[in-house]
Amino acid sequence: MAESVCGTMSVDEMSGYLGVDDEELRRMVEEGQLPAVVIADRIRFPSWQCNIGSYVKLLPGLPEVIAALTEDEAGWQIDAGFMSVPKASLFAEGRQTPVEWLRDGHSPERVVELIRDRDLW
User: Fold this and answer.
1) Is 24 contained in some domain?
2) Contact at 8 Å (CB) between 79 and 54?
């Protein structure tokens, strides 16, 4: 699966990726565990939240990040761009994107702080 800044997955793709049925997928969305967006009258899932290549299917710290993004209300395209662009304050082995930071097992709290402060950038 190719990743892009605003890449999304269909309901079938996401349920297959996670190994859950549509009912479980709906529950995850309703409980705020998984963001979904509507594009052209279809439910889609931003692909940045997937932990591709790992046995842990979703990014570590995703619930905290989703809560901050939901509170911020910037819109899913802005959220996707934010999560996919390297940040100077997320530095491990070079600047990292929030997605890379979380995939590497760093604290989601730093990403949450950046989300809350992003109106400043």
Assistant:
1) yes
2) no
Backbone angles phi, psi at 17, to 5 degrees: -60, -45
Given this model, what pLDDT does residue 94 score? 79
**Residue 58 belongs to domain spanning:** 8-120
Based on the structure, what is the number of domains in the chain?
1
- A 10 A CB-CB count for 35 gives 20
Residue 3 within any structural domain of the chain = no
Q: What is the strand order of the sheet 37-39 is part of?
A: 8-10, 42-46, 37-39
As beta bridge partners, residue 45 has: 9
Question: In whole numbers, what is the pLDDT of the chain averaged over residues?
Answer: 89
pLDDT digits (tens, 9 = 90+) for 34-92: 999 999 999 999 999 999 888 889 999 999 999 999 888 888 888 998 999 999 889 87
Q: Which two tokens stand for residue 64?
A: 């905290």
The residue assigned the tokens 């800044």 is 5
Token output for 80: 């996707």
DSSP reduced 3-state for 61: coil
Question: Does residue 114 fall inside a structural domain?
Answer: yes
Nearest to 80 by CA among 112, 41, 30, 45: 45
